[in-house]
Amino acid sequence: MNLKSIIRPRNGAADRPSSTVGPEVVTAGQRLARRPWPATPIRSGIDVSFEFFPPASPSAADQFTECVGQLVPLAPRFMSVTYGAGGTTQDRTIEVIDELGASTGVPIAGHLTCVGATRETVDRVIDRYAAAGVNHIVALRGDLAKDKAQDAQGETYADAAALVKGIRSKFPDRSFEISVAAYPETHPMAASPEADIESLKRKIDAGATRAITQYFFDNNHFLRFLERVRKAGISVPIVPGIMPVTNFTKVANFSQRCGTSIPSWMPDLFEGLDEMPEVGNLVAATVAAEQCRELVEHGVREFHFYTMNRPELSLATCHILGVRPSFARSATSQAVAS
Ligand SMILES: Cc1cc2nc3c(=O)[nH]c(=O)nc-3n(C[C@H](O)[C@H](O)[C@H](O)COP(=O)(O)OP(=O)(O)OC[C@H]3O[C@@H](n4cnc5c(N)ncnc54)[C@H](O)[C@@H]3O)c2cc1C
Fold first, then answer.
1. Is residue 14 predicted with pLDDT exceeding 50?
2. Is the CB–ligand 1 distance for residue 160 below 6 Å?
């Protein structure tokens, strides 16, 4: 190969389109300008939060502790712990919230579902969260466990909007935050996209202070959804939920159930990577970072990461976004200064 043919002079001539070649010639400068985002870290103004699920075994507990330990230094706005609507993880959620609140110094949000439980049971959990110092609840309807044909007997919260109203009546001060779920690609059981947005509005009108979205891979879904949400008169922050892909096959299967579409480029990009997790992680971090960078370009300044109790991909994505542990930033600047 003739290197001269591919190494271009650095005096600027390479950036000038040649008039002797056809219009298809793209210079290096033009190619860089076409990148979806400039390759410089964003330095400020990005808030992040991390979602975990309660560990189910001693080894999972170690992984959980390791994950939390690596993400806490990023000073997230809050960390949240999921709550199994089926009932399996509810006690563990409360235990984990007690521990995290006491040990991390980061605000903790407790997820809470109301389906399949009486109002009294749900209210008891709200009180336990409050006793643990929680002042942020992610209020959800949840899904009935497969083996439960019907909701609990007695007085219940009918849906997430009713739950929000119940929580707000206990904590009227809006410094007690209530987040709710939102669905850029429409909840699979919603009658229509419009009905889904009306349902979101009911939750906000009942006292929710923000919404976190179901994860999505095509930013157009989020951006169009945001437009429709604002048109509907909803003004609270709508925070995109970001799912870094640890295992593409599992994510694709789960996406089918929760109504997240898989863009046509994804299976091709992740082909073979479930068997090469290290390479897969590099690719997944790039994808998540590109997704976030594009959203930043559209004015998004807050992200909620579904960590799946694995820190690497969220850490890498945050690093690219310029969200770093404060000690790392000062060590780097000292090294550069000396
Ligand atoms: C950020 C986030 C966090 C989550 N955390 C958890 C968690 O910790 N634990 C957990 O179990 N699940 C969790 N989920 C999943 C959530 O519980 C389900 O998506 C559930 O199906 C809907 O809950 P919701 O609060 O959005 O319900 P709602 O706001 O009450 O409903 C959402 C939409 O679905 C429609 N809908 C729901 N159910 C029906 C029905 N039976 N018939 C007709 N329409 C219906 C509503 O009309 C509305 O349009 C989470 C989801 C998100 C996005």
1. no
2. yes
Predicted pLDDT at 227? 98
Q: Does the Cβ of 163 fall within 6 Å of ligand 1?
A: no
Tokens of 94: 């409360």
pTM, to two decimals: 0.88
Domains belonging to the chain, first-starting first, are 45-144+152-245+300-337 (3.20.20.220)
Helices (H), the chain: 3-6, 28-33, 58-71, 90-104, 119-131, 160-170, 193-205, 219-231, 248-258, 265-270, 277-297, 312-320, 326-337
Spell 210-231 as b/e; 16+ CB within 10 A means b.
Answer: bbbbbbbbbbebbbebbeebee
> Is 227 labeled as catalytic in the residue annotation?
no
Cα torsion 107, 204, 210, 304: sign: positive
Cα of 142 from ligand 1 centre, angstroms: 5
pLDDT over 70 (residue 34):
no
199 lines ligand 1 (CB under 6 A): yes
CA of 151 relative to ligand 1 center, distance in Å: 14
pLDDT in tens, 230-260: 999 999 999 999 999 999 999 999 999 999 9
- CA-proximal residue: ligand 1, atom 15 (nearest): 142
Residue 146, SS3 per DSSP: coil
Ligand 1 site, residue 312, Cβ cutoff 6 A: no
How many helices and strands, by DSSP H and E, does the chain display? 13, 9
Q: Which of 51, 177, 185, 312 is catalytic?
A: 51
Distance CA 319, CA 122 (A): 38
Check pLDDT > 70 for residue 111.
yes
Mean predicted confidence (pLDDT) in 141-161: 82
Which residue's CA lies nearest to atom 20 of ligand 1? Answer: 142
98 lines ligand 1 (CB under 6 A): no
